[in-house]
Amino acid sequence: MNIINVMMFGGRRCGKTSVIAAMKGCFQNVFGENTNLDIEISDMATMDVIDEKNTEISQYFINKTRSIVMNQSYAATQGLMEYKLDICIKGKDGKTTLNICDFPGEWLDKNHPDEQKTLQAKIEHCNIIMIAIDTVYLMEKAANHKAESVGQYNERRNYCKHIANMVKDSFQVADGEPPKMIMFVPLKCEKYYNSGEMELVNGRIHTAYKEIFEFAEENKDKYEIIIAPILTLGKNTAEFSRFEYGEDGEIMLDTDLMIPSMPKYIFKDISCSYSPQYCEQPLLYTLAYILDLMQKMRNTEKVKAGLFKKLKLYILETYCDLASAQDFLEHKKIITEQLKMEKDGYEIISDPLQLKEMTV
C-alpha cells in the first residue's frame, strides 16, 4: 500500500472539511463508470464525518430561503482529525491511501502555542500541504479592485503570515528527497467565478501569500506550487452577497477574531441543487504527485549510485508496493488528462515535478 500524508491548512470554519467531503463525489463524477479508478473509504471515522458534512450542506438546498448565513451553521472541527481516502483500481489489490490531516482553525492563533507545536511536528512528516483560503475574506472590503489589494479582514481570517512562518520553519525538503507540494485552494469562489474575476482571485493570492511564494522561489527545485480554486457549492447555485450590518451601521463582527460574523449568501436559482465543482482537482494533483514519484522509482531502478540512489531509496521506503505502482502508472494518462492547469484562476507556479509535461 502507498501512503501520502497531506496537511490541510485554513482558518476556523473556512470550509476545509467540506472540501474533503466533496472530493469523493466530484472524483466519481469526473471519472464516472468509464474507468477502473475509484475511491473507497474503509475508515469509519472518515465515513461518519463525510456523511455528516454532506448532509449538513445539503440541508441548505432542501430548506431553501432567499439568503443563508453559512459560517455560523458550520460545525467546527474538534481536535486533530485524520481522514483516510483510498484510491483504488477496480480488480486490483493495491491502493494508494491519502491520509489528510485537518485541525481546528483557531490553532493558528498565537494563543495556541502548544497546538502549533503539534502541527509543526505533523507538517514535518507531510508530503503535501493544502492551504484552504476563504475567498470571500480575501476579496471583500479591499482598498481597490487591484490584485495588490486584499480584503480588510483577510489576515485575521486566513492567517497568511502564520501559515507562511510554519511552512518556512517546518515544511523543509532534505537533500536527496523529492520535491514537496504546496497547493493553494481558494474556497467559496462562486461569486467571483460567476462574475469572471478568477484571475483577480489568483493575483490576490500572490499578494496575500507573498512570503510563501518568495520562499518557494528561493527553493524552486524543491517545491511544486499550485493554485487550484474550487466552487464549494457549485456555479449558479448560491454566492456571497454581503456582510450583515448591525443597528449601529457597522459590520457585525465576531468578538474573538474581529472579522465579519454574518456573511450572507443568496441563491441565484431557487431550483438549484448542491453541485460542488473542481473539488476533485486537489485530489488529482495529489495523485499526479504520487505518479511522479512512482515514475522516478521505475526510471531509477537500474541506477546504482549518487543522488538518484538516495532518491530511489527514499521512494522505495515510502512507496514500497511496486505492483501497485505499476497498476497506477498504467492509468497515468487518464488521471493527468483531467488535471486543470490554467484558466479560472488555476496556475502551476513552479514545476520541478514537470506536471505540465507528464505523459505515459
CATH architecture tag? 3-Layer(aba) Sandwich
Q: What is the H-and-E element order?
A: EHEHEHEEHEHHHEHHHEEEHHHHE
Strand percent estimate: 15-25%
User: For the largest beta sheet, what order do the strands appear in spatially?
Assistant: 2-4-5-1-6-7-8-11
Q: Into how many domains do the coordinates divide?
A: 1
Return residue spans where pLDDT drops below 50 for at least 5 consecutive residues: none
CATH fold field value: Rossmann fold
**What is the CATH first-level class name?**
Alpha Beta
Q: What Rg, in angstroms, do the CA atoms define?
A: 20 Å
Distance, first to last CA: 22 Å
| Broad structural category | alpha/beta
Q: Helix segment count?
A: 14
Binned, the helix content reads 25-40%
The 3D shape can be described as globular
Summed over residues and divided by their number, the pLDDT gives a mean of 84
CATH superfamily: P-loop containing nucleotide triphosphate hydrolases
What's the total number of strands?
Answer: 11
Main sheet summary: 8 strands, mixed
